[in-house]
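Human: My hope is that you can spare some time for a protein that puzzles me. I am handing you a single protein, as its sequence and its fold in token form. Could you go through the record with me and say what the backbone is doing? Take your time, and here it is.
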Amino acid sequence: MFQNKKVVVVMPAYNAEKTLLQTYNEVMAQGVVDKVILVDDASPDNTVKVARNLPQTRVFVHEKNLGYGGNQKTCYRLALEEGADIVIMVHPDYQYTPKLIPAMTSMIGNGLYHCVLGSRILGGYALKGGMPVWKYIANRFLTLTENLLIGAKLSEYHTGYRAFSRELLMKLPLANNSDDFVFDNQMLAQIVWYGYTIAEVSCPTSYFAEASSINLKRSIEYGFGCLSTALVFRLAKMKLAKNSLFPAW
């Protein structure tokens, strides 16, 4: 708990058996997390077996793979069902350190923000942590374009380390979003659409063999999806087009 607010960590999991325990132990070592919800997206490995031995953990298994966005939809639905006041998404591949959980929790729990991102770009951690140069360049290009079209000033839109308030998650039309990786981008655009401010904290990150990553083809598809989301946002803002991602409010 943090100031009588229930803190739930959600883990969208796929083939995470090798890194799940390390991630979980560090999450719980922070001393503020009440519950972990792990949603397994039909992993062929032993992720579920490992998860079911973890205390204070609810495990939900998709019978078939629904995609990264589809996994997150289940994560947030279950977190709200658990009565979470603060929800933090932590990837179980240990790419992002759980040691920032107390800071992110505090920023939301004290009413300062409704969304906090762990940014790999702030502090120059991306390349130091092993991010491939081509991914870094793509990240910078997409973020610049998105900031121009969406009107925000984020250091990056592509981190998977995120914290949200209950109020925010209940407000967003997440069911309208993609089930693929562009879900992350659509969600941030929706947060700006509804007038919320997004905060960022500098986050060290690590790239290694067990850390999940998408291939070049999927990365290109994701990039075009991000650009499309930003363009649709701008057209909706100018009242030139209607889209279910950005309904009138």
User: Anything to note?
Assistant: The mean pLDDT is 95. The chain has one domain: 7-237. Strands lie at 7-13, 35-40, 57-61, 86-89, 115-119, 162-165, 198-202.
